[in-house]
From TrEMBL:
This is Probable nicotinate-nucleotide adenylyltransferase. Catalyzes the reversible adenylation of nicotinate mononucleotide (NaMN) to nicotinic acid adenine dinucleotide (NaAD). It is an enzyme of class 2 (transferase). One of its GO terms (biological process) is NAD+ biosynthetic process. The gene is nadD.
Length: 228
């Protein structure tokens, strides 16, 4: 008989995947799913940004982006939704979200901030970025077209990011379980050249975006007339 699969426990590392999710797509969902498996996360919390700090106004409202994230997570017990950034009347700075989560979850629960390579590249421009390492681990996935691929670290990182990561780098997911925060771990995911901007462009130009995102999300976009 096969051994029982390890059940996710309430104190295991919690993955955090923030994004504008304009709209959420299969790149985001595979990122969450593959991070959960590769890093041994109990669950992954999707956190739609209410007011994304470093981009112009999204093409759909925060409430629509939250609704689409809820639809995308439906049926996957490994995912949960956090509406805190949508509800907050301020820019969606990750440090502030991590402080809120530490208040909610306590100082000991391992938190793993999941970033695609493009987001990670921009980390030194984030609000209080150096403090993030004190509140969460960071896991970085490859993304087609972006340079800081795990296998080429640290050569492809900017000097300040390389310096910040130097003593934090790990390739062992056990390190993410044994401490609440502080490690940086690159991991490989199935390369998917899907982006929300591609989907917005396709829909805006009257083309099909089917099979790039869940059908339920595509139906929502259609019934609410988004991105036209
Ligand atoms: N195809 C993908 N592969 C790996 N990571 C991804 C992918 N798409 C998005 N991500 C990651 O998901 C997070 C949220 O991304 P975001 O919501 O900005 O989506 P996006 O597709 O990059 O959007 P846009 O095209 O509007 O810039 C970021 O960390 C980003 O790097
Ligand atoms: O905290 C910051 O200063 C900060 C700056 C840029 C982006 N972020 C977060 O990074 C995630 C991805 O952002 P975006 O714009 O690529 O969708 C999302 O959760 C944002 O809130 C955070």
């Amino acid at each position: 008989m096969a051994p029982p699969t390890e059940q996710p426990d309430g104190n295991g590392p919690l993955g955090l995947l923030g994004g504008t999710f304009d709209p959420i797509h299969l790149g985001h969902l595979r990122l969450a799913e593959e991070a959960r498996e590769a890093l041994g996360l109990a669950r992954v919390r999707l956190i739609p940004a209410g007011q994304p700090p470093h981009r112009s106004e999204p093409g759909s409202t925060a409430d629509d982006r939250l609704a689409m994230a809820r639809l995308a997570a439906t049926g996957n017990p490994g995912l949960e939704i956090d509406d805190g950034e949508v509800r907050a009347e301020r820019k969606s700075y990750t440090m502030l979200t991590l402080e809120r989560l530490r208040t909610e979850l306590g100082p000991q629960r391992p938190l793993v901030l999941i970033l695609g390579a493009d987001a990670f590249e921009g980390l030194p421009t984030w609000h209080r970025w150096q403090e993030i390492f004190g509140l969460a681990h960071i896991a970085v996935a490859n993304r087609p077209g972006y340079s800081p691929h795990a296998r080429r670290w640290p050569a492809t990182l900017s000097p300040e990011l390389a310096a910040a990561c130097q003593d934090r780098h790990t390739a062992d997911p056990a390190d993410l379980r044994h401490t609440p925060a502080g490690h940086v771990m690159p991991f490989d995911m199935t390369p998917l050249a899907i982006s929300a901007s591609l989907i917005r462009d396709l829909i805006g130009n009257g083309h099909s975006a089917r099979y790039l995102l869940p059908d339920s999300v595509l139906d929502y976009i259609g019934s609410h007339g988004l991105y036209r």
